[in-house]
Design a protein that fits this description.
The protein has eight helices and no strands. By secondary structure, it is an all-alpha fold.
C-alpha cells in the first residue's frame, strides 16, 4: 500500500506541476483577492508546498518504515487538499449576468467558441438599429465582409482545448485517492 500511495502521489504531483507550469508560462501571477481577480500567494504556493513536503515525508516513511512519518505525511495532505479545493472553487468560472442595459454577454473559460465570438458586444439592439438605417447597414455589411478570412476556413478549435477542464478534475481525483491510500496505510502501519 505504501508503494501504491507513492505512485499515486507522484502521478498527482506531476499533473499539479504541469498545471502550475502552464499557469506561470501564460503570465499569470497570484494577486490578492481584494486587489483584483486572483488568489493570494499563500494559497497558490501553499498548496504545492504542503503536497511536496508531504511527498518527501512519505518517501522517508517508505525508506525508514516509521509509522509516525506516515501519519505526518497524511496530516500534511489534509491542508494541501483543502487549499486545492479552495483554488478550484475560486478559479471556477461562474455564469455572469448580462452587463447593464447593453446586454453584453461575457464568455467564460468553459464557453464555446461561438459564445466567445459574440462576447465582443453585438447586441440585438445594435443590430436592429443598424438594419433600420441604410448607412449603418452598409457599414455593418462592410465590417462583416472585412472580417471574413480570404483563405479557406480554419480548422475548429483543437479538441485539446475542450479537454482542458479534465486536467484539474483528474488531479483532484488522484489527490483524493492519494489521501485515502495514505490514510489507510497509516492506520494499518504497525
Amino acid at each position: 500500500m505504501a508503494i501504491a500511495t507513492l505512485i499515486t502521489w507522484l502521478f498527482t504531483a506531476s499533473i499539479g506541476a504541469y498545471m502550475l507550469r502552464t499557469w506561470i508560462t501564460r503570465g499569470a501571477r497570484p494577486v490578492q483577492r481584494g486587489a483584483g481577480d486572483g488568489l493570494p500567494p499563500l494559497v497558490v504556493y501553499g498548496h504545492p508546498s504542503l503536497a511536496l513536503t508531504g511527498l518527501a515525508v512519505w518517501i522517508s516513511y517508505v525508506a525508514a518504515g516509521w509509522t509516525a512519518l506516515a501519519w505526518v505525511a497524511a496530516c500534511l495532505l489534509m491542508p494541501a487538499v483543502g487549499l486545492g479545493i479552495a483554488m478550484v472553487t475560486l478559479w471556477t468560472p461562474y455564469p455572469v449576468p448580462a452587463a447593464g442595459a447593453a446586454g453584453l454577454a461575457v464568455g467564460g473559460m468553459l464557453a464555446t467558441p461561438a459564445e466567445d465570438a459574440l462576447a465582443g458586444g453585438l447586441t440585438d439592439e445594435i443590430l436592429r438599429r443598424a438594419l433600420t438605417d441604410d448607412a449603418l447597414a452598409a457599414r455593418l455589411a462592410d465590417e462583416v465582409l472585412a472580417s471574413v478570412p480570404a483563405g479557406p476556413a480554419a480548422a475548429a478549435t483543437a479538441p485539446r482545448a475542450y479537454l482542458a477542464p479534465l486536467i484539474p478534475a483528474v488531479h483532484g481525483a488522484a489527490a483524493l485517492t492519494t489521501f485515502l491510500l495514505a490514510l489507510v496505510t497509516a492506520v494499518s502501519a504497525r
